[in-house]
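Worked Example 4.2. Read the sequence first, then its structure tokens.
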Amino acid sequence: MILLGGGLQVEATEISSKLPEPIVADDFHEFDRAKAKIGQLLFYDPILSGNRNISCGTCHHHELGSSDGLPLGIGEGGNGIGTERDSGHGSDRIAKRIPRNSPGLWNLGAKEVNILFHDGRLSISDDYGNGFNSPAEEWLPSGLDGILAAQALFPLTSQFEMAGNPKENQIAGAAHDRIDYVWPIVAKRVRIIPEYGQMFVDAFEELSKAEEVTITHIANALGAFVGLEWQSHDSAFDRYLAGEEDALSAAQHRGMLLFYGSAGCADCHSGKFMSDQKFHALALPHFGPGRTRRFDPYVRDVGRMGESDDLADAYRFRTPQLRNVALTAPYGHNGAYQTLEGIIRHHLDPAGEFANWRVDEVKLPDAPWLERADFVAFQDKRERARLAAKIDIEPVTLADEEIADLVAFLNSLTGELSADGRLGRPETVPSGLKVD
């Protein structure tokens, strides 16, 4: 039993109503394990990439908490994984950094998740008559099982993530023409591999032969893997919610009281999965190529506005879910902070931390040919002023000891057995290509 002082005991009573209910199986969509097994292999198989040299798992790796450990990722053209991944060499070197931090994949199979990506450019919607508002607009294939299946399609079409340059391969050339031209090429690559073909026929009732495998089947397999593999609700905090009062250390318990109380963290990181699934402006310092509106000539990142084209959404980014957050450093939509303490301090004083942030605080992978452009927006006085003027959260003053308690609480969100996934990383894949 954790003993609390009088003030903390009062706060504990006040926040009890703010604590979420324990996560249960019904909070997730159901995912077929046979389809997920195919998805596991495809997730780590470079066969899905234009030049057959990068997989989904390269940037969402089991050893890196389903992320990549980098502020801004190194996509097609790089070598290795995590902080050891380089930016490539010679004519194969990267031409651009990935604009945003590679997010963790924990609990994205939850039923409450209806919007994805830092800017929400994929959401459940009937705007185009196919169930989704997405970058593919009306060209998204039909028959997708859910938002995770839809999400799996887009890295395959991205020049700097997995497709490669238009002159390098058929997939990249097709992506340059129209997004949906990519997917039949990918599907044929997969289904002509005998092991994959048979697995699809065995797992999908509507298939009688490998030649019938389409990109929809591939996307549904990948979605099933992501949704099943990274379900995590067996942390110390989850045990506490389930009634195990001694599951949290004294520091973690104090941090929990702050999180749901005076620190105000739960105002946005609310609910069972610790996200309101909405968008907020925090004045995180900008660097890298960013993402903006299609007609915008600036190198910057305008967040949600790039998707909605609504000025009210400028510099707002989706609230991330927090299970296993200690495994997915660095933090922020662009990985601006290396530690949980750093991103907590920014949340407590966005304007002050933005003003004091230095470029040497971010550890971008070495790419000398890109360095001149890396901090163009950060050094632009007008862009800095626009960022600093758009902050949605109020500052909060906490002592260093209280910040340490918040860090301790966030560490209590790390899963136990679930942190390793369920199917894990395969040693080999049916294409015979190298597994990262």
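Now turn to a second chain, presented in exactly the same format:
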Amino acid sequence: MRYSYYPGCSLHSTASEYDLSTRAVMEALGVELVELSDWNCCGASSGHASSHFLTYALPLRNLILAEKQAAGDLLVPCAACYNLLKTADYKMASRDGEAESLNSEMQTIMGRRYEGRVQVRHVLEVLALPEIRRKIAAGVTRPLSGLKVAAYYGCLLSRPPQVVAFEDNPEQPTTMDAVLRLAGAEPVPWWGKTDCCGASLAISQPGLVETMVGRIVSAASYAGATALVTACPLCQSNLDTRQAPGQEMMPVFFITELLGLALGLAGSDKWLRRHMCDTQPVLAGVGGSLTAAHGKAGM
């Protein structure tokens, strides 16, 4: 199984632990990732906020590159990148006047048009494939038994549902929960799965984001979770860094980090040491087999 791989800007910088763990997990599951050659920023979130043309043109360039590379569908771990790439694909599929004008302009710029032959896949979609689920179940060597987690999907994996959602019910997504169960963790039922974390308002309105993050963390804690799990770099950053002083800190994992631990993969010390909320107490409570697989939190 092979995919073109679009890491996006965050996974090559502030969320490098998501990139490292995604690559490690996919390799362990027999999935080959071919990083998209000469990829560019998808525009999240300043590009699409400043230019209607860039909203489509930036992700569209990556879609054209993926078609040219011909290494399979395009795997995208970042929820924001996934949303914008899916939005561009959806726009081009409409074949309306604006879409045709965009394609003509890309033909002039790149010498190629977008033909719509690439499917954009989020990492959760691939992890939920039946053959991958079987490999996860067979490969777990350190089950996350006793770890109660709140699967947090955020906004961009479920909205707008006609464009991006791969869930039967985007208001009550279950894909991440199912994957976490395969790893031995216990996802809790809770109401905050798709609440907004505040996204890039963390820069312009940090107080508002702290309030929103506080509600999410409190809801997860009330439901019995001891950790949050996400598949979005911006969500992870907000949830990990914007918890209110004095509030009991809750660690926030990427789904691939926990899968990597459950599969017994090397390198988790590089992933977990980048977290701001200390992961050690929660993982130590899961079992001795996990405590040696991670390092002290901190940059």
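Notes for the reader: Strands lie at 2-5, 32-35, 74-76, 120-122, 148-151, 186-187, 227-230, 252-254. The radius of gyration is 19 Å.
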